[in-house]
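Good morning,

Attaching, inline, the backbone tokens for the sequence recovery test we're adding to the shared suite. The designed sequence is right after.
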């Protein structure tokens, strides 16, 4: 698998709907008000909860509208809840070992990524308007 981009392996393991959700979140091109407002599709960038801008971080970690759905996410993600990079298939923000060997051995935590996608799907927030 060395030489094959890790993200490709991750995306290839997902169906189209799940891959679409995963593609939206790390790029911040998700159907959240921060992005929709920027492209003129929403009147405000503030979340429907009224607390702050509806960013990916707010949606995944803090929005009170999704506390119930977030419980299942927290059970799977555990102490990585809050590490957006790791939750979205990237490297953790902090790591003890930055050696070249560790860099080559690193791979996304598919279980965590799938839990994030399941959370997003349960909220229905990223579903296209129909």
């Amino acid at each position: 698998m060395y030489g094959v981009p890790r993200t490709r392996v991750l995306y290839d393991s997902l169906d189209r709907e799940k891959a679409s959700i995963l593609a939206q979140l790390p790029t911040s091109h998700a159907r959240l008000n921060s992005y929709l407002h920027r492209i003129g599709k929403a009147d405000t960038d503030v979340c429907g909860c009224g607390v702050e801008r509806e960013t990916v971080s707010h949606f995944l970690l803090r929005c009170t509208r999704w506390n119930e759905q977030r419980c299942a996410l927290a059970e799977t993600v555990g102490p990585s809840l809050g590490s957006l990079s790791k939750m979205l298939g990237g490297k953790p923000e902090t790591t003890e070992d930055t050696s070249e060997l560790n860099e080559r051995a690193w791979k996304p935590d598919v279980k965590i990524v799938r839990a994030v996608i399941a959370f997003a799907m349960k909220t229905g927030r990223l579903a296209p308007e129909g």
